[in-house]
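Running this now, will post back.
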Amino acid sequence: MKENERRKFIRHPVNVPISVVPQQESSLGQMPMSDVGTGGLAFLSPIAFFKGALLKINITFVQPEFEASTIVCWLRHAGDQFEVGVKFLDDDASFKARMVEQVCHIEEYREQARRNGRTLSSEQAAHEWINEYAANFGL
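Update: finished.
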């Protein structure tokens, strides 16, 4: 995998499970997402997918549920699993995935506040997170 190709998959700490469905096959179940970038996302999988394989990605953590068709661009070993980089087949899906990632960061921020004894509504957490982190988010 070329270094400039991997840069399209910007590294972010996203611990939200995604559902991966190979086209014309049954779902592989939930897998942890590792990156979301401008061109696609990466996830950890116990299965090595071939470059060029078509996959459907679902993220049910958000409403409405996010769904996108993707193509496998790269694969690398990650311990006893594989990190799989997929490219969105639709430019609109790239933007929506970045929004999903932002919602996930806000909910993570809200949970961290709760662990520190602060109760925030989703709206309050979003307002604080946007004021503190959105400028560096890279949208």
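Residues 3-91 form a domain with the Thrombin, subunit H fold (CATH 2.40.10.220). More later if anyone needs it.
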